[in-house]
Amino acid sequence: MLILQPQSLSMKIGNVDLGDKPLFLAPMEDVTDASFRYVCKEFGADMMYTEFISSDGLVRDARKSLAKLVTYDYEKPIGIQIYGNIPDAMADAARMAEKASEIAGGAGADVIDINFGCPVNKIARRGAGSGMMREPDKMVEITRMVVDAVRLPVTVKTRLGWDNGSKIIVELAERLQDAGISALTVHGRTRCQMYTGEADWTLIGKIKENPRMKIPVIGNGDINSPEKAKDAFERYGVDGIMIGRATYGHPWIFREIRHYLETGEILPPMGTAERVDLAKRHLAKSVEMKGERVGVLEMRRHLSCYFKGLPDFKETRLKLVTTNEPDELYKTLDHIKERWGTVVPARNTNIYNM
After folding, report:
1. How far apart are CA 253 and CA 225, in angstroms?
2. How far apart are the first and last CA of the chain?
3. I want to staple 221 with a disulfide (CB 3.0 to 4.6 A). Which of 52, 145, 188, 227 is the partner?
4. Residues annotated catalytic, as ranges
5. What phi and psi, each to the nearest 5 degrees, are found at residue 285?
6. What average pLDDT does this structure show over 308-333?
7. Dist. CA 161–CA 169, nearest whole Å
8. Is 130 exposed, middle or buried (0-12, 13-18, 19+ CB in 10 A)?
9. For residue 198, how far is the Cα from the chain centroid?
10. CB neighbour class for 158 (10 Å; exposed up to 12, middle 13-18, buried from 19)
């Protein structure tokens, strides 16, 4: 598919200027916390989002939901993402997200994002997240109410449809635009696909081909290499690309993609010694933000992923995911550098598509 229409050299969400071909970090529950966002920003993510936040939790002043409102100046521009299936609660949650700096402290949000894309059962089966794909009229109603409730730009993240028989995204995209959103992100799978099979970008391309669509369209799904990112921009004409699972254990993918887009050259894989240094920075930030106990526990899911592919690593990996003390973790990381520091893991996009 070739997109012939001219594209702007700078993508904007409302008055937030993101430059040419911006790269977005997808919001992922229990992954994209503030410490992970810190390292992704370091490697060039142009825009990031909080973990998704329950509108019901915000309205009830639930501690965990309120904690997710906290953002930092170095993260900007950043969006706060909310989800839910009750229109009034979603509008109230959007107002709270807009006042995040007053309610929870921190830097606040630049954008309010609505999650109509999460496919997990506990969310979708009760009509929130991608469960909204079965109620497009209600989806549009909620979107309009959120847009009317806040002054910040509102964006939506969603999927192609509920299943293969109801891929409604091309028509729905126009309706969401008419409801007032400032940008749309589409994951190239249906809800029933979850994360299986390959993402289908053809309908994302059709949204861009629609001459009535004026807002930026961001594509999402299976972008796990610089080559795939470049192909998505050129073949489907998207304004931006959102990267999710491929950042897990590989946040430097933003740097790799940007370098390839600008030079046509593939950067060499990051060596083990550099990965150890990154893991230490990430661990220190996690402990600083959440304290030793929680900071270490929540780093476990990241640490072993930084070192995928190292030979004879099983015993060391076990230490990374069971150690409770930061000092012991730092010692283990030093051991990794001493033993495998000269190893340069082979570039293998399969291990990044998690």
Report:
1. 7
2. 27
3. 188
4. 118
5. -70, -40
6. 94
7. 6
8. buried
9. 18
10. buried
Angle at 27 between CA 211 and CA 107, to 5 degrees: 100
Rounded to whole angstroms, what are the CA distances from 156 to 118, 173, 181, 191, 219? 12, 10, 7, 16, 12
Assign 326 a pLDDT band (cuts: 50, 70, 90): very high
**Distances 62 to 56, 70, 199, 284 between C-alpha atoms, Å:** 9, 14, 35, 27
Cite the DSSP H helix spans in the chain.
34-42, 55-59, 63-67, 87-98, 100-104, 121-124, 136-149, 169-178, 202-209, 226-236, 253-263, 272-303, 314-322, 326-340
SS3 for 111?
strand
User: Among 13-27, 54-68, 162-176, 313-327, which stretch is predicted with the lowest mean pLDDT?
Assistant: 54-68
The residue-averaged pLDDT of 120-136 equals: 89
Classify the phi-psi angles of 59: left when phi > 0, otherwise alpha if psi is within -120 to 50, otherwise beta: alpha
Q: What tokens were used for 9? A: 């050299």
Q: How far is CA 319 from the centre of its chain?
A: 28
pLDDT number for residue 4: 42
Q: For residue 249, is pLDDT > 50?
A: yes
Average pLDDT over residues 90-115: 95
Determine the pLDDT at residue 217.
Answer: 98
Distance in angstroms (rounded) separating the CA atoms of residues 71 and 101: 8
Token pair in block for residue 265: 């050259």
Helix (H) or strand (E) holding 80: strand 78-83
The predicted model gives 244-261 an average pLDDT of: 96
The encoded tokens of residue 137 equal 């009229």
